[in-house]
Amino acid sequence: MPTNVKFAPRRLGHLNLFVSDVERSAAFYRDVCGFKEVFREPEISMIFMTNGNTHHDLGLMEITPEDRVGRDGHVQVRPGAGKTPGLNHLGFEMQTEAALVDAYRRALKQKVPVSRTTDHQIAHSVYLSECNGHFFEFYADIIEDFSAFYAENQGALISGHWDPEQTAPSEDARFPKDPDLFKSNDAVLTSRNVAYAGLPVKDLQASIDYYADVLGLNAVQVDHESKFAVLEGSAQGGCDVCLMETTEFPATRLLFGGVNLHDGKALTDALKVLESKRIPASFIGDTELSCIVVLDPDRIPLVYSTSPAGRLMARHGPAVVAEIRRLWASNADEANAATL
């Protein structure tokens, strides 16, 4: 029965990943991918990276068997998570804090489980697990100058508990309106921003229905033959989440992260450099629409392109799916070989 909770975020704001070595991953995303480090929380082995698109495009947290506890004892990682590399959560940007609180109230009324609510001091957040077990954050920025906040709080634990009912939520839109995006001249790939992500799902149609009803993300492309769908948020960017039906989920629980690149550097040239550095990568597409699939140090696939994600997936979605499946098989073969 429909709940009509509809968080209806504007867009995907960030990827938050568990990584086996946070310093190694940060170096990869800086030197290979062109993201800039902006903040650290050493007590929880956390590094944030962005090029100005939002307060962080990437959150990197090192795996550990220990609990990750933030400000005032606030537990930041759900029980059982964070023991192996892969997806921690996807972060979705809301229009306003008021829109976030309204959706939170609808979720509680319809008995949609909420895992936690968090005050990050730059944003307020609601966390939940969706129908396939993937963990999502819906956040609303509460300040506009995140750079100044980071500078004043570098190294401190910044996240604690938030009570959405304690004060009246703001109706001001405080997300970056026209950010000045950083462009690395030294990295192999000149990343602009994290723009979309691919997730495995158990039942494509049931997931499409759930995402529309509870999450407020609507399908703009469905390929029933490849069991693949593209969904977008209220900003109508063309692609925020890609869903692929599969009977087996990868250990990382993330099919891929999608990154928009700055114009100016040919993908074929970048591919040659990646290959020379022995970084696993492959090219998909044609002269008009193309992308590179790259494996990060934990062999998590990242899709990099200057092409609009919606158009890219409309033309080459099945090819991207096939390449991801090949990478899964390659990962499984390497893991099996390592145990012999």
Proportion in helices: 10-25%
Radius of gyration computed on alpha carbons: 19 Å
Structurally, how many domains make up the residues?
Answer: 2
CATH topology call of the largest domain = 2,3-Dihydroxybiphenyl 1,2-Dioxygenase, domain 1
Number of helices: 6
The end-to-end span amounts to: 49 Å
What is the structure about, briefly put?
The chain has helices spanning 22-31, 97-109, 146-153, 204-215, 267-276, 309-338; strands spanning 11-19, 36-41, 46-50, 58-62, 86-93, 116-119, 123-129, 135-141, 160-161, 191-201, 218-223, 228-232, 241-245, 256-261, 281-285, 290-295, 301-305. The chain is α+β, with helices and mostly antiparallel strands and 340 residues long. It has two domains: 11-161, Roll (2,3-Dihydroxybiphenyl 1,2-Dioxygenase, domain 1), CATH 3.10.180; 191-338, 2,3-Dihydroxybiphenyl 1,2-Dioxygenase, domain 1 (Roll).
What does this structure look like?
- The protein has 340 residues and is α+β, with helices and mostly antiparallel strands.
- It folds into 2 domains: 11-161, 2,3-Dihydroxybiphenyl 1,2-Dioxygenase, domain 1, CATH 3.10.180.10; 191-338, 2,3-Dihydroxybiphenyl 1,2-Dioxygenase, domain 1 (Roll).
- 24% of the residues lie in helices and 30% in strands.
- The protein has helices at 22-31, 97-109, 146-153, 204-215, 267-276, 309-338; strands at residues 11-19, 36-41, 46-50, 58-62, 86-93, 116-119, 123-129, 135-141, 160-161, 191-201, 218-223, 228-232, 241-245, 256-261, 281-285, 290-295, 301-305.
- A 9-stranded mixed sheet has the order 2-3-4-1-5-8-7-6-9, sandwiched between helices. Strands 11-12-13-10-14-17-16-15 form an 8-stranded mixed sheet, with helices on both faces.
- Strand 2 (36-41) and strand 3 form a beta hairpin.
- The protein is globular and about 55 Å long.
- The model has no long low-confidence stretch (mean pLDDT 91).
